[in-house]
Amino acid sequence: MTKPRTGRFALGLTIVAVPLVLALLGPLFTGEPGRRTASFTLGDGHWIGTDFVGRDVWQLVLQGGRPVVLTALAATALSYLVALPVGLVGALTHRRWLEELLMRPLDVLLAVPSLLLILLAATVFSPDAVGLALLVALINVPDAARLIRAAATEAAARPAVEALRMQGETWWRMAVGYVGRSIVRTLAADAGIRLTGVLYLVATAAFLGIGVAPDAADWAVMVDRNRTGLFVQPWAVVVPALLIVSLTMGTNLLFDTALADGRRRDRAGSEARP
Q1: What domains lie within the chain, and their CATH numbers?
Q2: pLDDT in tens, 91-150
């Protein structure tokens, strides 16, 4: 039972480590993109060829992961930073008007398709990487807040919360100390899925030229700009696309393995009790 779990964890760690290391440390090992040569060429010092304007693909790969990864991580963290207090307050408050005030505007925002909202925002202003992270975080807040509120409502209905309230415990102790700890596993499961969705949303926005320059060293931009020469020089498209897919697959595998191990430990602990 332990070996398969360890194997799955090692596999997930390996899958996610390759794109993550390239994204975070890649720019330290290269300067500006290499000199321009003939488009879509192999050899002449270019390990995996050049892109459609003659830039070295390997250098672009080393430089192009950090914008995607950091923007996705920042957007995911910001979405939970807003959604967590909103969801907890909505679940624990006894004031109906406050719950409606918090949740109903989020329902309106949830009704707008994510990509459409990004395109609409891009027509009003041209977001940079920070603006794109804020926009993607805003898009993810309604869904995250509803999930947190649903999980926290179930935990808040337990007798332990009522006992804490009767003992005069502070709202912070009840919300964070008990309810918050009770929904950690739900948040962990959601985080893996949400980070995957955010990665694809950030990559799609970059693919459409939103948040990045058209000639930027970015994995999603590389896929977009070089797809016309896919059958001439596939590495300029395949390598960045595989790195994005590996990052999302590895992240989900790590979270799934951690959650499965947690459930197994809980079962073992309950069976050990007299």
Answers
A1: 2-272 (1.10.3720.10)
A2: 888 788 887 888 888 888 888 888 888 888 888 887 888 888 999 999 999 999 999 988
